[in-house]
Amino acid sequence: MTIAIVGIGLIGGSLMIDLRKRGFTDRIIGVESNLQHSNIAQLCGLVDETDSLENAVDRSDLIILSTPVNTIWKMLPGILDRIDGTSKVVTDMGSTKGKIGRVVKNHPARGRYVALHPMAGTEFSGPLAAIGKLFDYKNAIICDPELSDRDALGLAEEMLDVLNMKKVYMNSRDHDVHVAYVSHISHITSFSLALSVLDKEKEEKNITTLAGGGFESTVRLAKSSSETWAPIFLENSKYIIEVLDNYIEKMNLFRKLIKENDMEGLKGLMEEANKIKKILH
After folding, report:
1. Which end of the chain has the lower number of beta carbons within 10 A, N or C?
2. pTM of the full structure
3. What is the pLDDT of residues 17-52, one digit of tens each?
4. What's 165's DSSP letter?
5. Which helix (H) or strand (E) holds 69?
6. Distance (Å, rounded) from C-alpha 134 to C-alpha 118?
7. What domains are there in the chain, each with its CATH number?
């Protein structure tokens, strides 16, 4: 099995560590526009070599797209053009699926594409952030599985089994709605909190002195790459705007109750929020 990994950052690099170590692949070709990342990936042994996208696609059995989502949908039609009529499979690691799916919906080689989203990651980016066992026991969303050829889907599922991931099947629209609420809003909240603190706390020592575990865990995602997350917010803007409106409504409710000195109202609101403990335990 020869794999082409397009985009050798946290996700792409971590994938290659485990897929190589667990015997799923014996050759990895990297495709990376950032020369520094390309060199690091080769020096660290994440890939055996790097090549152009076209050459890597032609030389590989499985092509994995692990770039920002706004580049995935631009690349995918051309890749499907090249692999049409072959047994090659292409998949992606994108956090949104709607636009990618629409772009290739009527492509004659649509069946060779499997839409994946591994629910794993850290706040770090680049090939040096790649770590082994990142995906173990995490969920992997397989979107629109009925649109993929059986053998293509089977290869993607085999890869997820090697990564010890739990497979969840969903259509693209439901996926994009749910990740907006569960994942994307968390990042926006974290970025917003970081901006608020930086805006009000001009003295760095005040932040480091008073930052407890709660602040650190809430603001951790604000370290995430803007190159990755700005495209996600824009690609999934329809549902993220809905989530933001709902979130702002809840923030305004807290503001109102605090301003009115409403102890019982605040307790009630927080006790309602405490119900999340039954889900996340």
Report:
1. C
2. 0.89
3. 999 999 999 999 999 999 999 999 999 999 999 999
4. P
5. helix 69-83
6. 10
7. 2-170 (3.40.50.720), 175-278 (1.10.3660.10)
